[in-house]
Design a protein that fits this description.
globular, 399 residues, 70% helix, 2 strands, 1% strand
Amino acid sequence: MLYLSSVSADFLSTLTNPGEASHSTNNPPPAPSIRSRVALTCLSHAARDFAGQTAGRLLGLGVYSLLSTLGETPMRVASGIAGAGAGGRLSYLIARSQIGTGTYSQCAAVGACTVAGTIIGGVIVGMGSNQIVSGVAAGSLITAAISWSSKWTSTSAEQQDVSDLKTGSAIGVTFAGIGVASWCDHQWRVGSSLYPARNLGLIVESTVIEIFKSSFERLGPSINRNVLNFEGKVIASLVGMAPYVAATIFLNGYASSRLQPDKETAEFAELAGPMIVGAIANALRGFTNALMVYQLYSSERFIADRNTRALRDHAGANRPDAEAVFNKTSIRYLLSACRNAVYARLRDNGMSVEVSNEIAQGVYACYAQCWDLIHDIARGEGWSEPKVVQRDLVELSTN
């Protein structure tokens, strides 16, 4: 009898029939871990932001290059009209949501803010007046600080007092800031002849970016920032501000300046590379902000709706909301025009391209990180109302 030592009962017991083998190999793969899902989602946000920024920047640069060959005066008039429209629209939305229109006095205040915003937007975008940029920056900071006090109000009268104080500070501090800046700097118009053409190119850049973001926000996995209340959104933005500001200063300020000539130019070929490099900072912003939103959501803090999931699956492209795109475009356009005004004024004072870029981009990044919050405020969001917690009286035993 032939004995095969290499074949044993244990070996034979491991064999299965073809049907069993086929069944075992068709088992579904294990679900990815939550950490890998979050990482993939944040990378998806970064990729979408980079693609949208690159498309918007290059198209805006093309328009800027074409318009730079036209006369300066008509470009200033056209950019001033665009800035006035964007400033008036944004001022009206914020004033309406924060002041209200229930009484004649409130309507008058909203109208005054709208007129002031229209004038301010036109002068900033058309002339590049840093005095007004400084005043608006000071007024917005003080108003934001005062609005925080509404969290400690308990009656409607106190809330109305805070609302009146916000309105007064927004107008008063803004004009005070303009006065102080005017005392320090007497030049109300930047000397760059390409400044108005650059701001007209910003219209195309801002519009393309916002259409892209609204159309493809559900292309691939995404994180829904609306799972957080307004306080949570503010914290997520503040925590993500430092890396975005640092990346913006380095990529849009230092690296981009190294790639472009020292002289002012509107040549597409010379500016396309720096534009693409600068878009990397927005990719980092998208990644970081998505991660911060999920971190707050996973810690179960600042949740607006516990029935809404933070992680959203791929849903494909969708038709953008025209009104939301227009409002977001106005915000992005005005902030970018203020950045251009700061840069042009620094160049007028003799600073190098690199230093001017770093300063302008650093200041801009602090406000740009919050443009989602500005849109939230414009559509009526704000600090959550305080909740009174009633406690039962407990008698302590003296035994």
